[in-house]
Amino acid sequence: MSGCMRQEPDGARADYNFAYLDEQTKRMIRRAILKGLAIPGYQVPFASREMPMPYGWGTGGVQVSAAVMVPEDRFKVIDQGADDTTNAVSIRAFFERTAGVATTTRTREASVIQTRHRIPEEPLREGQILVYQVPIPEPLRFLEPRESETRKLHALEDYGLMHVKLYEDIARHGHIATAYDYPVRVEARYVMDPSPIPKFDTPKLADCPAIQLFGAGREQRIHALPPYTRVVPLDFEDHPFEASKPDHPCGLCGATDSYLDEVIVDDAGGRIFVCSDTDHCEARRDSGHVGEDTA
Amino acid sequence: MSAHAEMTPLLSVRGVSKRYGAQIGCADMSFDLYPGEVMGIVGESGSGKSTLLACLAGHLRPDTGSVLFDTRADGLRDTVRMSEPERRMMSRTDWAFVHQNPRDGLRMAVSAGGNVGERLMAVGARNYGDIRRSAVDWLDRVEIDTGRIDDRPSTFSGGMQQRLQIARNLVTGPRLVFMDEPTGGLDVSVQARLLDLLRGLVRDMGLSAIIVTHDLAVVRLLADRLMVMKSGCVVEAGLTDQVLDDPQHAYTQLLVSSVLQV
Lengths: 295, 262
Description:
heterodimer, A: alpha/beta, Rossmann fold, 2 domains, 7-stranded mixed sheet, 3-stranded antiparallel sheet, 7 helices, 12 strands, 17% strand, disordered N terminus, B: alpha/beta, 4-stranded antiparallel sheet, globular
């Protein structure tokens, strides 16, 4: 069987093709990605493959990463901002073994970044690719259960329903309570689900120099934002969009402008707020920043 | 009806037919509806009333014929041959459709206010305060306690749901309302209240309406003109009182005499 293998960089397992997927599958996924880039925000169907991990663990993101990866890439995986959680560690190890690519935890050094639920704090640059793991790519799904109908609504730009959802938020909570997965309009055309990133990250989608790719494995959809795309969050004139975060500085590095996680530290109700982006936090601490909860 | 001679009809139906395979839905229907006029369509189950209504409202595409609607911008246009986005725009602005079962016409998981506001948001309203004010105004007009604006329709009674559906449809100020058995499934006292409300709204707003029903009392109260359908064809048409008081066709005579007198 080893005759079928096309490339085997140092360190990759010889019994897998480069980056796990076979070349025909990668070709199919690349076509979907190119179509997605050509029509920003449009959900392109693709023949999602079974991956050696359960649905919901990033099967879509992994397939997109595998399709865009080249041996020279340096790969980073983020899980809720962190580089050291199960999902991030396993996916990083997966590509170390099946592609033999170099990996990193530093946003600046990475060329391909697969992410679950966060956009790095450090601004992305041209030449980088950010791959999102998407659970449900259809922004209208919970308002309109029929796929045939949601496709028609997208085709006809019939997006009044999205505002009904925001209206319901304000009616019930007094403000737009959608805190993550905030619906956005891409290039004044498609309404897009940005995957469950916090509202705080939504403005970073717009005008980003990096390529942003979204892969939903179970739902078999890929959508994409080419560099420097116009992305506008939906809102009301009298209830405008607001990127929100906990009103604290980071307990470890003192950053006031990064997205924070609330961490419970003992049984007595003690809690600290720390940067969700571990790489950002470490880099700041290395350069001498100190927060008030540093032991 | 000499005034009609100079008026443009709001809706002009010409030779509309719809077949389901060998089965006839409705055959060669033609009539005009003038602004401010309410037309009743009665007939037994399976006579093609609902098929006809669906063809007129753009839910079904008729096999032959045309449905001309007097649009605000371009005058008479054939809605059958309009593009889908145009037809959808029409059904959100100038048309309204009241379903027999309010569950078909409402979003049950969305609050009453959201239901009323949906059409406004669909045509571009982006000011929460304004949308909210229209919703309150319309709930008041259909006699729903405005304190229930944030309750879901699933907590409403059948009569309230039907009134909410009417509010949701009329909020964009349509000119033509299609109603499919609007009082079906409601008890008689609630029916009477709903009819009263509908009659008031139709007269106040100068609406034109097409009401499909098998309840002769409904057409007696609401409709100016009446068409009686049987097996997909019109067997008798005329002024409501004339048709009901002096039915000519055997089927109409049967229909009128079948109403139980209390």
